[in-house]
Amino acid sequence: MEINVTRRQGGFLVDATFGGPASGVTALFGPSGAGKTSLINMVAGLVRPDAGRISVNGLCLFDVERRINLPPEKRRIGYVFQDGRLLPHLSVRANLTYGMHRTPAERRFVTFDAVVELLGIGHLLGRRPARLSGGEKQRVAIGRALLTSPAMLLMDEPLASLDASRKSEVLPFIAQLSRAYAIPILYVSHMMDEILNLADHLVIMDSGRVVASGELQELFSKPELQAHIGKENFGSVISTVVEEPLDASGLTSLRFGEHVLKVAAVPAGRGAPMRVRISARHVAVARQAPALTSFQNIFSGKVVQIGYGGESHVDLLLDIGCLLWARITRKSFLDLGLQEGQAVFALIKSVAVKTIALETPPSRFCRGSR
């Protein structure tokens, strides 16, 4: 995925350049008014850029120099909006197949039964949209977009109109979707929790421009991006696998490198990939290994970087076999006499670790080639 576009909308300029993987989720993150929706509307062909180029998996959608501007219906893009936008007079089944019947049979690689199973909507097929909950409407909207067998899927804050319980209902289906089909998904959100559950690649936007673009784990832990990601989100994201689903202490053991991280029990089998998020403010630092403590995770390491975050706190980048951020008070920093290169111990509460399952579903959800 290659996007390089500019467009002036009154006094607002969108000037964005970034790339993304050929499959999986690329998240567009930024505050309201950052230009995220304007950008994906250009990708969809709903808005024409003033200049630039858009290409997805080798297919050029727009190129001002070559005078290429494919109409929306020729771009093979599925679009899921904030609201479902289902056709009220049609049943769920008819809504699902509305776009599918307009895709030539030889280009279909997504099957109806597989989508119904993946999204868990088999019992809804005979209903009209008026009889669906908000979460059910969004699942049907996702299925409708997917059944066009798109070369790319755009999702513009698809959970924004849902309450917390409905969000938790739909989010796992989107996560499965991104791993079941080998197509790129451009996912717009200003909620970091959604992005941590879904994306591997992150694009941060602000005031119409791309501030940073790259692997989520790398960008998430950069202190210079705190202002854009949000100070409350600052910390570390680590890839792990389940070593012991439930040990004698009632915790789940996750392996990363040569180390094991103990977390609250998670419903995942041995060997399952997991992403963990550890907030910097939930990491304590000690000069000596504590003898008696409630912390279940104690890792030896060293201080590799000191960031002075203000009058009240200091951010420490620790190497414990992977990079880990800790945020401690300035008083604690001075009392411990910490310096770069110094040996320390990082202490992490098991209950403070946020876990995200990254299990890949079976390949039965798609057939043939796109």
UniProtKB/TrEMBL annotation:
<protein>
    <submittedName>
        <fullName>Molybdenum ABC transporter ATP-binding protein</fullName>
    </submittedName>
</protein>
<feature type="domain" description="ABC transporter">
    <location>
        <begin position="1"/>
        <end position="232"/>
    </location>
</feature>
<dbReference type="GO" id="GO:0016020">
    <property type="term" value="C:membrane"/>
</dbReference>
<dbReference type="InterPro" id="IPR003439">
    <property type="entry name" value="ABC_transporter-like_ATP-bd"/>
</dbReference>
<dbReference type="InterPro" id="IPR003593">
    <property type="entry name" value="AAA+_ATPase"/>
</dbReference>
<dbReference type="GO" id="GO:0005524">
    <property type="term" value="F:ATP binding"/>
</dbReference>
<dbReference type="InterPro" id="IPR008995">
    <property type="entry name" value="Mo/tungstate-bd_C_term_dom"/>
</dbReference>
<keyword id="KW-0997">Cell inner membrane</keyword>
<keyword id="KW-0067">ATP-binding</keyword>
<keyword id="KW-1003">Cell membrane</keyword>
<dbReference type="InterPro" id="IPR004606">
    <property type="entry name" value="Mop_domain"/>
</dbReference>
<dbReference type="InterPro" id="IPR027417">
    <property type="entry name" value="P-loop_NTPase"/>
</dbReference>
<feature type="domain" description="Mop">
    <location>
        <begin position="292"/>
        <end position="357"/>
    </location>
</feature>
<dbReference type="GO" id="GO:0016887">
    <property type="term" value="F:ATP hydrolysis activity"/>
</dbReference>
<keyword id="KW-0500">Molybdenum</keyword>
<keyword id="KW-0813">Transport</keyword>
<dbReference type="InterPro" id="IPR017871">
    <property type="entry name" value="ABC_transporter-like_CS"/>
</dbReference>
<dbReference type="Pfam" id="PF03459">
    <property type="entry name" value="TOBE"/>
</dbReference>
<dbReference type="GO" id="GO:0140359">
    <property type="term" value="F:ABC-type transporter activity"/>
</dbReference>
<keyword id="KW-0472">Membrane</keyword>
<dbReference type="GO" id="GO:0015098">
    <property type="term" value="F:molybdate ion transmembrane transporter activity"/>
</dbReference>
<dbReference type="InterPro" id="IPR005116">
    <property type="entry name" value="Transp-assoc_OB_typ1"/>
</dbReference>
<dbReference type="Pfam" id="PF00005">
    <property type="entry name" value="ABC_tran"/>
</dbReference>
<keyword id="KW-1278">Translocase</keyword>
<dbReference type="InterPro" id="IPR011868">
    <property type="entry name" value="ModC_ABC_ATP-bd"/>
</dbReference>
<dbReference type="InterPro" id="IPR050334">
    <property type="entry name" value="Molybdenum_import_ModC"/>
</dbReference>
<keyword id="KW-0547">Nucleotide-binding</keyword>
